[in-house]
Amino acid sequence: MTTTTKPAAPVAAAPGRRPGGASLALRQGRLEITQFLRSRESVVFTMGFPVIMILIFAAIFNDEIAPGVSYTQYFITGMIATGLMTVSFQNLGIWIPIERDRGVLKRYRGTPMPKWVWFAGKVLMVVAIGIAETALLLAVSVALFDLKLPATAAKWATFGWVAVLGVTACTLCGIAISSLARTARSGSAVVTPVALVLQFISGVFFVFTSLPSWMQQVAALFPLKWMCQGLRSVFLPDSFGAQEPGGSFELGRVALVLGLWCVIGLVLCLTTFRWTTKRDG
For residue 62, with 0-12 CB atoms within 10 Å meaning exposed, 13-18 middle and 19 or more buried, which class applies? Predict the structure, then answer.
């Protein structure tokens, strides 16, 4: 996916007034959200693609994969996780090389604005768009496919921490993988294949236990598989946990793996992130 979003200008302070860090972060977040909404391709791909995939797959597959669990219900949970990964890992991995290649990041680094404000703006954009996308997917799924929303506070709490840990891990990994792209055009070529492969092996398009065992083992190394599994514990019956590879939803392991990827992503960001291209030095 490519984007034609114009490079952003650094957030400017109002004359005679020095805004605090929180104010700068909010301004930067609004700027990032505005840029996202102005890019029609990004909006359609990020917000529309998961909905389109749900409509297509629900029309093709309508069998039950377990008592009281249809394939559509199973698939919807995977698409919610995919949507969160798309807005964080995939979008950041594609956008940041474009900004770097156009010299936007170099200009940011030369301003008095604290560097963390730029990162905070990206995080706020991911959170805002992620919430909007999840709400859209849930609304479509409830209205058209009889998805049952969680009935207890504990289920909603699980949904919350799985989403937070998953988005945090994917955001950090998206910032880190952006350094692999040498030019603006290569960002999509680097990130999109990784995202697609993870979707196919992580139990998004297919029932996870139907995949070859070696593929399951590879998928278990990455966050998306655990995001899908955690969300299945929220939207599918408790009895379906017996269908998981470990015989249960393994929420403790879900939290452990996602938390570990947050640490790994942070370390990769701190050690690999570049503000300029190699030609800029």
Answer: exposed
For residue 171, give both structure tokens.
């955001």
Give the pLDDT of residue 4.
45
Q: Of 30, 57, 256, 268, whose CA–CA distance to 129 is shortest?
A: 30
Q: What pTM, to 2 d.p., does this model score?
A: 0.87
DSSP string, 26-47: HHHHHHHHHHHHH-HHHHIIII
Q: Cα–Cα distance between 263 and 256 in angstroms, integer?
A: 11
C-alpha to C-alpha distances, 74 to 64, 66, 258, nearest whole angstrom: 10, 10, 21
Pairwise CA distance, residues 125 & 76, whole Å: 23
What amino acid is encoded at 82 in this protein? T
3-state SS string over 64-107?
Answer: EEECCEEHHHHHHHHHHHHHHHHHHHHHHHHHHHHHHHCCHHHH
Give Cβ neighbours of residue 131 (< 8 Å, ≥ 6 apart).
none
Answer yes or no: is pLDDT of 223 > 90: yes
Q: What is the pLDDT of residues 52-95, one digit of tens each?
A: 888 888 888 878 888 888 888 899 999 999 999 999 999 999 98
Percent of the chain with pLDDT over 70: 92
